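Section 3.1: Structural characterization of target chains.
Under the original work plan, the team committed to producing a structural model for every single-chain target entering the pipeline before any wet-lab resources were allocated. The record below documents one such target. The sequence was received from the expression subgroup and is listed exactly as submitted; it comprises 108 residues.
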Amino acid sequence: MTEAGTPTSSGTVAAERSWPLWEVFVRPKRGLSHVHAGSLHAPDATMALRNARDVYTRRQEGVSIWVVEAASITASSPGEKDSFFDPAADKVYRHPTFYDVPDDVEYL
């Protein structure tokens, strides 16, 4: 900090690095689901939401924004995809591949 109490550029960078990382999801005007738009650092959820609005919807592309603290996200590993999703493969009843559909049914 300088004598006037304003942070120096290196102090600002150090403060931002200590802020949690937030993942930003934006729902576009012509879409039904939120799409991952990027990440940002912010001290809290309110500031993350405001910063996400300013950074990721500058041209009014979105109608809804979600911010999620990255530390709160639990994800499967791409390397374990075969073993992780294997139990779903043996449930053939989930996929209508063996049903006979009558010819007069248009939309199924």
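The first strand starts at residue 21 and ends at 28.
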